[in-house]
Structure formats: structure tokens, C-alpha cells
Design a protein that fits this description.
This protein has about 160 residues and is an alpha+beta fold. It has a single domain, classed as Aminopeptidase, CATH 3.40.630. The chain has four helices and seven strands, in the order βααβββαβαββ. It starts with a strand and ends with a strand.
């Protein structure tokens, strides 16, 4: 497996992974994290334009899609409640990570490769997304507190620092 920047040829594959992820989240008790059609192919296209859309490829197949930005200054991460960030040095963020196959270590691989590229990563997830919370903890991310999206929706925040 390897990660690489997404290309226009990847948009449909990643959009399909996101569709399946929305179904998986609903089936596992998390129907509210990705509402409506978000994320979708348009979000992938916008990330391609600004260099933040990535895929994980395995034997020629796109098996994951995600947003990865280094040296980020995510406005939703400026204030954290009921906790604190582990470090305020420049950080990267991962958003919209979703995998095609569960239980194969794809997300673990993506997190590991991103951490090799940037040793301070922040990420958030919905309180009801227990599979992602377990995955984050397993991969060395530590719970830091609560953040609020522009919409006002609450998310629980994690960080991994070298």
C-alpha cells in the first residue's frame, strides 16, 4: 500500500468510498456525522485543487480517501473545550478519512504514513463514531477535548505528537 495525492481519475472511487462510509456509520450507531451528501466528489475535487485530497492505493485499487493538510491552521481547532491540545507547534490535520474495506489495517497504514510526513497531527470525530475513536486510540492519538465546527456541531478532538 502507499498514499499519494488524489487525481481527477480517483474522484469517483473516493466518492463511492464516502457513500459506503455514510452507510457504515449509520449501521454502527453514528447517523449524524456526515449528513446528506457530505463528503462527496466535489469535496475531493476541491482538495485536488488545493493539494489536500489523498488516496491510499493497494495493488492498483483505491482503498481509502482522506483530506491531509500540513502546517494547518484549522479555525475549528483554535479553541478547545474540556481539555487542551498536547502541543501548539505547527500541526497537520486529517479529515474525511474513509476506507473501502474494514479490518484490513488500511486506516492504520494511512495514519502511520501521514505521521511519517508530519509528526504532529490533529483529527476530530463525532462522539457516536466509536469505531473511529478506537482506531485513533489504537494508532497513538490521544483524546484532547471538544471542538465545535462552523455549524456549531460538536466533535471530539485527538492529537498525536512525536
Amino acid at each position: 500500500m502507499f498514499i499519494r495525492p488524489a487525481t481527477h481519475n480517483d474522484v469517483l472511487a473516493v466518492a463511492e468510498i464516502y457513500d459506503n462510509a455514510r452507510r457504515f456509520m449509520k449501521e454502527t450507531g453514528n447517523p449524524n456525522q456526515w449528513k446528506g451528501e457530505y463528503p462527496n466528489g466535489y469535496d475531493v475535487e476541491m482538495g485536488i485543487k488545493d493539494g489536500t485530497s489523498y488516496v491510499c492505493e493497494d495493488d492498483g485499487e483505491v482503498v481509502a480517501g482522506f483530506y491531509f493538510e500540513t502546517n494547518a491552521d484549522d479555525p475549528t481547532y483554535r479553541k478547545i473545550y474540556k481539555g487542551a491540545w498536547k502541543s501548539d507547534v505547527p500541526y497537520a490535520v486529517i479529515h474525511r478519512i474513509a476506507v473501502k474495506y474494514h479490518g484490513r489495517g488500511i486506516a492504520d497504514f494511512c495514519f502511520s504514513e501521514c505521521f511519517k510526513l508530519f509528526p504532529n497531527i490533529r483529527i476530530d470525530t463525532h462522539r457516536d463514531n466509536t469505531p473511529m475513536q478506537k482506531c485513533l486510540t489504537k494508532n497513538g492519538f490521544e483524546y484532547c477535548g471538544v471542538i465545535y465546527l462552523k455549524s456549531g456541531d460538536e466533535r471530539i478532538a485527538y492529537q498525536k505528537v512525536k
